[in-house]
Amino acid sequence: MHKNTRRNFLKLSAAGLAIGLPGLSFGATFPARNMEVFIPTRAGGGADRNFRSFAGVWKNHLDVDLEPAFYPGAAGRVGYETYMGKASDDCHDLIFGNMGPEVLNWVVKPPTSFSVDDYFYFLMVDADPGCVFISEKSSMKTLEDVIAEGKKRTLTIATSRLAHPASLGMLVLANKMGMKVNLIPMSGGKNTRNGVLTGEVDLGVLPATTVMGKKGIKILGLFDEKNLVPEKMAGATLINTEYKLGIPPIAAGARAFGIKKAAADKYPDRFEKLVETGMKVFKDPDYKVAVKKAKAPWAFIVAGGVNECRDYVGNITRIGKEYSGLLKG
Amino acid sequence: MAPELSVFLALFADTLSYWWVIIPATILGIVVGAIPGFSAANTIIILLPITLAMEPATGMIFMVVLYTASRLGAGIPAILVNIPGTAGAAATPLDGYPMAVAGRGQQALAISFTASVGAGIITTIAAIILIPWLSQVAYHLHSVEMIVVMLFGISLIATISAADKIKGLIAGFFGLMIGYIGADVVYEAPRGSFGFLELYDKVPLIPALVGLFAISEAFVVIERNTILSKEGETGQQQAGWGPTLEGIRATIVHWKEVIWTGMLGLVIGVIPGAGAAIASFVAYQQSRLMSKTPELYGSGHVPGLIAPESANNGVTSGTLIPLLIIGVPGGATAAIMAVVLEYHGVNFGPDLFESEPMIAYGSFTAMLVTYVLLGFLILPLTRYFSRVMVVPTLYMVPILIAFTLVGAFVPRAYVFDMGVAIVFGIIGYIARRTGYHVAAILIGVILGPLLENYFLRALRISQGDLGVLFSSTIGNILWVLLLLSVLAPGLKRFLTSSRKTRNAD
Fold first, then answer.
1. Which residues of chain A make contact with B190, given a CB cutoff of 8 A?
2. Which of B62, B181, B211, B296 is the most exposed place for a label (fewest CB within 10 A)?
């Protein structure tokens, strides 16, 4: 009896160690392995640049590397479908996306293999305002000219794609001012810029960093409440306040880390550590150095937590639903 | 804006001092060009950390040289094993590969390299002289005009399927249908993607390209001992330096072809979004149209190889012009160059030729130096490159398939794309066995989506008014030229037969 009890005790202890210890040590040393970050765009673009600047510093606070995995295609859908299908629920797998265009994806065509509530963003790293720009050769010189012209005839407006926050800003402005606009999706920022520069369209809308300081282009207005880079966007009208659009600032580029809801619910302590260490990055002087080295404008770096991300997604979704008919072409 | 001769010569000499960048970049360019899927654009992206660390002028010369050399490299597998590693070399096998199969691979390589180097040098010099005018082309060719340019390329379907028009047209329409798989640029409505998200952004081009040409070819040649035909085997074994010299001579004889197809490539290269694939198809189609022996095209005819190779090398200098003058890249590689130059704070525009001559003119002089270097470096190698043809298919086919599958994987890093290559390999094999032209399918796959993009964009701008297609003067001139080029062969035949009838009477 005594022997059996001791054997049982040893068995139970061994089993407890086998099951419990790894768990305990795993939890205690989170992250226990390198973080994998799914990026739903091609390598070499703006998301890649922002990710590398941020991850290069965040890794010092997490004590593990953050490894990017790029899944371009279908305006981000491939990356999100892959993340939701393949990522683990242990908080080691994150997604790094551009919230605005990707959320608008779901507005115009909801995902089929998961619910939009199955993941959420928790760490916003930048807010690149949407802007209205023209070619310097254009006969229209100011936003007033554009509005006046838009009341006389239908203006052709180049945009990266219809379901984009910059398009949304233009639609709100046109609606408010009684302008006639025809959005022309040009498949990407480069083509949008080309369309305006070569005079195929009247004007364009894009995130400001895509056109700021570019030769032959003049930024006329920002869908924002303040001009954070006045030296490169001199005279740009603050459209939201000037024309009382009644909408919050529209960041056309707002990159953020996201996570599966199941992972955050299952391991709140780990999620908390991600948020806590992530926010420390913004105060780390190395981050400013990394951003400047990547030639990204520091003025657009915005530290946003769960609430800021939720507000942004909520606003874009609300306005997007209002104009969803026009965003589908 | 064109420099004085003394300034140009000084710049040329200055460029030579970058030999330590030019030589390795040239060799690397040939290698990456020759491997399917490893285009210059991909390689520059991979090497971005190195390029960004270089001085702007050094980085620009490195990229330009890599880009230039990769163009020549892409012709090697296109001719020897029927694998156009990039879309720009897609028209090269039409006449290059039949020459190789007939044991004239060495000669074909010599023709391809001589035409490329010749056209490259001529168009680069022309680009320097014509910069002020060529930089304006992008302002005049919008969606409407580009629709007609695309149709020039697509009309090649009818041209290359002269032997069996019905089968050619079926293959071409099949290609166009494949090209329309995925979401359109305006409405983003996916069509025929069978639920695969990986097909949402259209059928990936490189996997389709290597599948249709290379994998299907591998399936065909496995039935033989070598890629060469029986007669070709004998000729190849006995080859010395003669075929190389013969190839150089044959190209020099057709110098006019080199110049005009090269210049055509230069003009198409200047148009943003056009590029080497369109240039080489249009050049091939126009070359055949103007030829006195159009029936020889597709059977290993020298001008049929010169035209696409000269044109796609003309594109290289053309693509830089709108980038440097108005900051609008002419193609994918130029777009990546723009990223690097913007990173260094370089401001594009006419001022660049004054403020940074080593970047502006230096890009073109680097091209010139590369072409001269390539002439000496690559032509002597034709004899050895062509020995690939005698490798038994027992070894060659698995190597080919392995390389092509890796090439299919590289651009997007999706295993799915390897599957796409295999599916297209099977489609290509069936097409070959049943007498359908795989090149006709490929033209549809490459040009179909581009045509659709421009068409939908033009209609969107005009708010659905089809009259927009005839709304521009340049567009209308192009329409007339297209009509003439489509009707010309029939008219020519009609006039010849009427003349014969009259003479008989």
1. 74
2. B296
